[in-house]
Amino acid sequence: MTAVQESLMTTEEFEELARAADHIAEGVRLEFINGKLGVKAVPDGDHGCIIEWLIRACLLLRPDLWLFQEQGLKVDAYRAGRARPDGALAPSGVFAGQPEWADPSPVVMVVEVTSHDQDTERRDRQEKPKAYASTGIPIYLLIDRELCAVVVHSEPVDDRYKRVETVSFGAMVNLPKPLDIKLDTEPLKDWVR
Fold first, then answer.
1. Taking all residues of the chain, what is their mean pLDDT, rounded to a whole number?
2. Fold of 43-191
């Protein structure tokens, strides 16, 4: 017998709740992944420096793309989930005129930077790779501050990525096609506490 997991709310109910949270509580960011409501930690200064580093690197290596911060995306196979990755690398200007929760098809890479909270293991290392893979996003880049490593997930198949490569901070990391670029992760050592 297979257990069926039912969501506690509909996608429409979640979107209404997320809009209300934006107006009521500054700094609260909600997500809805695999039928579960989640709260993302408010980023600290080191988190911001990591995103700045990645924006500069991507702009230098792929000026046709932009790293959109906190862009709401529809995720999972049935589009019933909603995520706000720390970064969504996509063609410049592609989200113009899009609603708060945009179609993820133009996104070539999503980025998450781990936070110092108890939910990181479940959210960033387990649920998000499945959600992003099932959506067909080619690359999921996890910058894991706890492990001092960059984890590159690529080649999405169903609800998983076939290739997962872990590189310690300080080494060169290859972001495979469709990006096909290399990043020097040495600067990431400066933003680990």
1. 84
2. tt1808, chain A (3.90.1570)
